[in-house]
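hiii so um. not sure if this is the right channel but i have a protein structure encoded as tokens and i wanna go backwards to a sequence. like what aa goes where. can anyone help
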């Protein structure tokens, strides 16, 4: 897997998980923790063969830093830049009207 593709996988999956977690936090469903855990597990399994599916730079560094086959720069790009960009993007993605309408379909928009 190429470094840019690995960073993209980490970034997109981190963004998706953060958006889902924020939506669950706002909606407060009865089994929110279990739903969040299921979403996280599904994303990790989906990304496992591509980037390892860590979605957490500190965890990835503690487990993968210094492993053979990757340089320090490659590690930083995939696990730090990819995941951090995904987390930052999730803040903006969650505020998009499309996402807000999915999370709160009955909310009346006030200007």
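sure thing!! here u go:
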């Amino acid at each position: 897997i190429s470094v840019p593709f690995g960073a993209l996988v980490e970034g997109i999956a981190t963004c998706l998980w953060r958006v889902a977690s924020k939506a669950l936090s706002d909606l407060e469903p009865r089994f929110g923790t279990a739903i969040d855990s299921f979403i996280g597990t599904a994303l990790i399994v989906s990304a496992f063969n591509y980037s390892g599916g860590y979605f957490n730079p500190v965890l990835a560094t503690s487990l993968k830093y210094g492993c053979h086959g990757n340089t320090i720069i490659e590690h930083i790009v995939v696990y730090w830049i990819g995941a951090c960009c995904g987390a930052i993007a999730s803040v903006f993605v969650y505020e998009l009207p499309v996402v807000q309408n999915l999370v709160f379909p009955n909310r009346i928009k006030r200007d």
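oh and The radius of gyration is 16 Å.
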